[in-house]
Input
Amino acid sequence: MTMLSRVLGLVRDVVIAGYFGASGSADAFFVAFKVPNFLRRLFAEGAFSQAFVPVLSEYRSQRDLAAVQQLVHRVAGSLGSVLLLVTLVGVLGAPLLAALFAPGFYLAGGEKFALAAHMLRITFPYLMLISLTAFCGAILNAYERFAVPAFTPVLLNLSLIASAVVMSPWFEQPIMALAWGVFMAGAIQLLFQLPFLARLRLLPVPRAGWHDEGVKRILKLMLPALFGVSVAQINLLLDTVLASFLQTGSVSWLYYSDRLSELPLGVFGIAIATVILPSLSRRHAEKSSEQFCRTLDWAVRMVLLIGVPAALALIVLAQPLLTTLFHYGEMSARDIDMSAQSLRAYGLGLVAFMLIKVLATGFFSRQDTRTPVRIAVQAMTANMVFNLILIWPLAHAGLALATALSAFLNAGLLLRGLIRDGVFRWQQGWGLFVLRMLLANAALAALLLWLARPASDWLAAGLVQRAQWMTLLVVAGVVVYVTVLAALGVRLRHLRG
Output
C-alpha cells in the first residue's frame, strides 16, 4: 500500500510539473502546501505518533479495552482542541506565516508572495484534518492494521491529480485548484479511516483529558520529540526558506528532486520504521531485550540492502529519471538540469535519511524522546552551518547537500547512542553481509554507467522511447543486483525479521 501511495505521489508530481512547471506560481503553491505539511509531520506523524503508539501499545498489552477506549477519547479531545486553535491562528496569520517561511518572496514583494499567502489560508486547515487522520492511523498501526493508514495518502494524490486536470480551468489563477484539492483531500482522508476504527471499537469520541495520566505521559514524550523525529523535515523547510532568496524556480527544483528521493524513503524506510515501532514497544514493555535487539538489527540491514542501491540509482540516473518523469509541458530542459543537481545531493543522503527513521524508533519505542532531541539539535546546527557554506558555490544544490551531510551526522549519533545504551548490538554475519553488499552494488553501478546515454539523447527522445530506456535500466539493474546477491549466498530466509 505504501508503494501504491508513493507511485501515485510520483504521478501527482508529474501532472503538477506538466501543468505548472517550475514557475513562480508553482513556487508559491509549494510553499503554501509545505507549511501545513511540515507542521503535520512535526505534530502528527513525527512527534505525536512516536509518543502515542508506545503508550497505546502498553495500554493494549497491560489493560482492558475500556481503558484503551478512554485513552483514545481523551487524546482525541486534547489533540483536537490544540489543532483547532493552531488552525484558526494559521488561517488568520497566513501572510505572516508566508513571510516567515518564504522571506525571499516577502522581500521581493509582488504577486508570488500574495499568491502564497492566499493559498496558505486555504491549505492550512489541512494541518488539522490530516493530523487527526494520522491519529487514527496510529491507532490502526498499533493494532497491526497497517494497510489502511498506508493506503490513505493515495486519496491525497488522487485529489491533487483531479484538481490539476479537472478544476484548474475553473480558476482565474489555475494553481488555486491545487490549494482547494489539498483542503478536500484532508477531509476525505479523515472520513475514510473512521469505519475501520469503528470495527476495532475504538472510534474516537473527543473528551477533555488534559489531566488523564496517559495523556500527560504522551505529552511529556511528545514535547521533546517535536524536534527529534522531524529533523529531516526541519532541514528541508530551512532549505525552502533559503531557496526563496535564490532565483525563481529554486523552490520547485528542490521540491521535484526531494519528491524523487522520498519514493524509496517512504516505500521502505518509513514503512520499516512504522512496522517495527509497535513490535519494539511491546518487546520493551515485556522486557524482551534480545528480541528487541534482533528486530532493530534486521531493520538496519533491510535499510542498507534497499537504500544503498536506491541511492546509487538516484545519483547515476538523476537526469534520465527527471527527464522521463517531468520533461513535458511547462517543465523545461533547464529545469531538469537544475533539479538533477539537487537530486544527486539528496541521493547521497538517502541511506542516512532511511537510517534516521529506523534508529530513532529504537529510542521512541522505549519512550526515550530526550536523546533524539539532543542529537537533532546538533544535526540542525550542523545543517545551518553547511547551508551557509555550500549555498554560495552550489546555490540550491548546496542546500540539498547540506541536508544530506547533516543527516549522516544525525544517523551516526543515533547509532552510537543505541550501542551505548546496550539496546543495539551487531548480530552475527555483519562482515559477510557488508562484503556481499559492496560487491552487488559495485556490479549495479558498473551496469548503470555502461548502459548510460548522454543527457541530450534523453531530452530529444519522446515519452515511449524514454519509458523503454528507463524500463531497461530498472529491470537490468534489479536483475544484476539480485543475481549477484543470490550468487553470493543471500537467500529469502535471510531477509525475514
